Amino acid sequence: MTRSRTAALAALLTLAVLLGAASAAAATTAPATAQSALTVTGNDACFRCHGQQDVRDQTIVVDGRPKSIFVNRAIYDASRHGGLACTSCHIGFKPGLHGTDETMGWLVTAKLTACNNCHADVFDMYRGSFHGNLVFGESGGKAPVCADCHVAHNITPPDSPAFRASIDGLCARCHAQQLHTYLDSYHGKAYALGDAQTAVCTDCHGGHKILPPSDPESTVSPQNLVATCARCHPGANENFAGFMVHVDPQSPSSSLVVWTFWILYILLMTVIFTFGFTHTALYIYRGIKDGLYKRDRHG
């Protein structure tokens, strides 16, 4: 009996050790999940340096420009990413002074490639877009990446009124002329007057998969333009969608027809006002010469 009990105890201990080892191995090799990224453990260590008011004036040089190392924790915590660990975007960083092995290429990682870890579907759309083709085609940093539009530490929900209100200004950083012609259009004037529901840039051109009009998959290509207009204007047809947008009337290269009518309009206004001014001036001159305005003439 003693031997059987000893053997049974030994077997139980062996089984417990094997189960413990298996559990530890599973915990070690388990892939990261979306939930595991939602941890702010370690952020306190980051904000001990980057969240202090006395580092507001401390900068590092990024792309030839000074950049503050200060991060406002209250703003970050209230942002869309407020529940994420800093190292979710600043991959490989550890508390303390950061060496070159940590900082090498950090900006591209934090502003672009790290986004793919949580937003793979959106990132694939961006990669295939006009902007993405420029970035991954070595544009020399002359095309926007994720954080250029969504900011870094103060990310607002894309479906919020605050983000929608910022869209035209974001696009204007690179497309100032297009913003000017947009503001000349019905949509632009309605938006300027406070209509938050009128179309902004992304309503027509899309957000992450922006393509040139020559691309058949573009939302503003001839093949898709009617469907794009119909999102806000049910019943839109080819005639409706054929309305010219982003036209600068003062530029013949923008639209020769519109420019011609603009020139004719300017000429017509010039002739009318010149005739009116000349006629009035001659009438006053004749009145003065004939003494029409003398006081004794009316006595």
Explain what this protein looks like in three dimensions.
The chain is mostly helical. The protein has a domain at 256-292. It is 51% helix and 3% strand. The protein has 16 helices and 2 strands. A two-stranded antiparallel sheet has the order 1-2. It is elongated and about 95 Å long. Mean pLDDT is 83; it is low at 5-36.
The radius of gyration computed from the alpha-carbon positions, rounded to a whole number of angstroms, is 33 Å
H-E string: HHHEEHHHHHHHHHHHHH
- Count up the helices: 16
User: Which geometry do the CA atoms define?
Assistant: elongated
Strand fraction band? under 5%
How far from one another are the termini?
148 Å
What's the short version?
The protein has helices at residues 2-29, 34-37, 43-50, 73-78, 100-103, 106-111, 120-127, 130-136, 146-150, 161-172, 176-183, 186-192, 201-205, 225-230, 238-241, 256-289, and strands at residues 59-62, 65-68. The chain is mostly helical and 299 residues long.
Top keywords for this entry?
mainly alpha, 16 helices
Write the layout of secondary structure elements.
Elements: H1 2-29, H2 34-37, H3 43-50, E1 59-62, E2 65-68, H4 73-78, H5 100-103, H6 106-111, H7 120-127, H8 130-136, H9 146-150, H10 161-172, H11 176-183, H12 186-192, H13 201-205, H14 225-230, H15 238-241, H16 256-289
